[in-house]
Amino acid sequence: MAPTAIQTTSELTDTAVDHALSKSAPSIARNGTESSLAELDASRIMFTRNTNPQKVPEPNSPEVWAQNCCTDHMITCQWTSKTGWATPRCEPYGPLTLMPTASVLHYATECFEGLKFFRGYDLKLRLFRPDWNARRMLNSATRIALPAFDPTQLRKLIETLVAVDGEKWLPKSRPGAFVYLRPTMIANGAALGVQKPKEALLFIIANMMPSFDTALGTAPVDSANHTARAKERLGMTLLASSENTVRAWPGGFGFAKVGANYGPTLMAQDEARSRGFDQVLWLLGSECEVTEAGASNFFVVWKTRDGQTQLVTAPLADKIILDGVTRGSIIELAAERLNGQLEIVERKYTMNEVEEAADEGRLLEAFAAGTAFFVAPVCRIHFRGKDLEVPTEGLAGKYTALIKQWLKNIMYGDEEHPWASVVNERQLDGRTNG
């Protein structure tokens, strides 16, 4: 092959993704090819009831803040390159078995998703835009050389876990509460070589998680000064990253929800918290381009020098940031309901612009947005030795509070909306069919 005919890395990756779709999920492949391998099929699921169920912890308890308490069941499904997807199983939550040579342990061949299910004030269980999460997980899986699947089938498996464990773990006595869901895929084959995985495991678990979008931020309830801290704070505090530390870069995989995006950031995050900040505000390059706040998307509301009020967030085009479900929903709602009040702007912007807006009194609001942090107002950003104070009205700015309430109304059933899907609860009897 002549040098001019060699594909770029991006082209090679795109071609590999097409091949993965055609082999492991031909029903959604662009070329419409057929495959003898079994596709992921939620209708085949087998059930095994947990005969040693756990106690549901109290809301906001130390057990919840520990973030290691999961519901009674999990969904698992094995894939191999020879047979495709096996029969999915809903089984008791418990340990996984891996060989020390498993690819995931050496080459970060794993991806995951994060979403929540909610107990509405009308006492119904709901998911919020699960199709978006399922499609995004497909993108992440194929980017990291894991098998493809029909996102609709993943959504159905998520709904199954919610239906089985929702009644107990989100009882009707707790309207307005949520449980966190974590679909995950790992390469669990025993081959040590640097190669595309030949085996993978999909699993879905549900975890009891606290709310991070309050004035308490990330301070656990058992911290000595959490009450005083909550009273004195009006939002999250962020520490801007230095030029020699980046979370993601153009041409990389910041758009994919893979573990390799998160592990390398934990040291900086821990150091930021030791200095009294909630998260790192990740910047890129010598221009200090704003990207994300911790693992969340980041928004500012400011006035331009000509008086236009704008909601500004980083764009998706360079694939540096995650295409967040909350992010996209905020943009859609703001465009629909604040038309004429607020200009929605997706563009590259820098901390120097944020600093200028703060110095000139034009910075009105800032907030992080994501599944875990939901919509969390930011009250202070530390940038190059200087604290930039973000105005707040009470515990959130005007637009932050408005958008957050709209989303909560949809999630908890106070507003009927196509983004919220009701899940019917079910109980497993003492028998097993798998």
SSE topology:
Elements: H1 9-24, E1 46-47, H2 62-66, E2 73-80, E3 84-85, E4 89-92, H3 103-107, E5 110-112, E6 115-119, E7 125-128, H4 130-143, H5 151-169, E8 178-186, E9 199-207, H6 226-232, E10 236-240, H7 266-274, E11 279-284, E12 289-293, E13 296-303, E14 309-313, H8 325-337, E15 343-346, H9 351-359, E16 363-370, E17 374-383, E18 386-389, H10 398-411, E19 420-423
Parallel strand pairs: 1-4, 10-11, 10-17, 14-15
Antiparallel strand pairs: 2-3, 2-4, 2-9, 5-8, 6-7, 6-8, 7-19, 8-9, 11-12, 12-13, 13-14, 13-16, 16-17, 17-18
Helix pairs in contact: 4-5, 8-10
Essential attributes:
disordered N terminus, ten-stranded mixed sheet, 26% helix, 10 helices, alpha+beta, 434 residues
